[in-house]
């Protein structure tokens, strides 16, 4: 089982151990590490990238209890240094955190987010109706989300029933395994592109201004 250090750490470098390195049919190499800071693709968030002992770490995927790391060349088993691409991590964290704030904004209109894509350029939150819903517009959602960004609330990490919980300030915690900003002010301007209601679902497309 790969120990997921990114659950509790925002560090971008780590000394870890390569347990296995296996060549793949597509020319890449599959590495299993004892512990990792690389967030794997999943939960609507793209994979981190970076380097492992100088080799390009192209993609990380959750495979059973392990996080598999796919590199452009082989890495010998043993102690290695990994480095996460900080610029890409920051972008992914901002998009994922923005998705949470949009979900909070949607709840104030009687909608609960249950499915999301936080990939830059494809940001989307899908909501299901709660007991009573109110009309919601892109402008109204942007205003609610902007207020949460402006509040610059600090991130709060916790655990509940064995699940990692994420929130900011006094906001309701969500179970989430992704990476997130340290405070809501780091997200920047959230832009709601399209809001569509159909068959009891509300789909909200979003992006960040930079």
Automatic annotation (TrEMBL):
Keywords from the named record: Metal-binding, Zinc
Superkingdom in the source lineage: Bacteria
Keyword Metal-binding among record annotations: yes
Database matches in InterPro entries: Alanyl-tRNA_Editing_Enzymes (IPR051335), Thr/Ala-tRNA-synth_IIc_edit (IPR018163), Transl_B-barrel_sf (IPR009000), tRNA_SAD (IPR012947)
Cofactor: Zn(2+)
Domain Threonyl/alanyl tRNA synthetase SAD: 164-200
PANTHER family given in the database record: ALANYL-TRNA EDITING PROTEIN (PTHR43462), THREONYL AND ALANYL TRNA SYNTHETASE SECOND ADDITIONAL DOMAIN-CONTAINING PROTEIN (PTHR43462:SF2)
UniProt name for this protein: Serine-tRNA(Ala) deacylase AlaX
Record organism: Pantoea eucrina
